[in-house]
What does this fold into?
Amino acid sequence: MTDALVLIERHHAIAVVTLNRPEALNALSSALRRRLSETLAELAGDRSTEVIILTGAGRAFTVGLDLKELGGETDSAPRLGSADLSDALAATPQPIIAAVNGYAITGGFELALMCDFIIATPQARFADTHARVGVVPGWGLSQRLPRLIGINRAKELSLTGNYLDAETACAWGLVNRVVPAAELLPTCLGLAKDITSTDRPTRDEVKRIMDLGWQATLAEGLAIEGEASRAHAKAEVRPEKVAGRRAAIQARGRQQSA
It folds into this structure.
């Protein structure tokens, strides 16, 4: 499925979703935000889609909200509320990998942070320019970023508006790994295939309780995990299933340790 603003490329159970306004560095116009929200809603309801990879066409992941539109310099379609795109990602049960190929600025930085993890190229650059534009974050950056890299580093980025390079972002724990541009999508596809090779009901529940626990205290998170573990064991865990998977797990371990 393709259209002018969002491209979708299928790799069996994996969907690569590409923001496609390269001439505008994939700035999130009202139309693009609406189409991305619709795309995520469609994929969320598609059981054949198990993992989503989100990336951008051209030199940018996305530079965030379209400032020409926001500043009234161009006509805009009816706008989404500020939380709508955030809600669309939160309502997507599949793991979402951000493949950051270039600039991820302000709203684009927030979009990357809303994904489950980030793989970047050396050309990736992150920046929070909310304080320079004069807009307070509305998609969670002020809360997610300090939890990932620490409050002091987050304040440095958000209060200065300075750019962060990919290698530093990786060292700070924002990015999982940095790979050459030519290897970005193959790396993300490989990780997505690793995800699809796991037991889907179990990984869905693991992702759910990790997301819930991340927003809770440790004690609350442990309680969430305990309840989920007991319920899952009762409904899903059978000795014959575990025995059947044991040989494959051991073989994979030997292969990855070689």
Summary: DSSP finds twelve helices and ten strands in the chain. The mean pLDDT is 90. The chain has two domains: 6-196, 200-257.
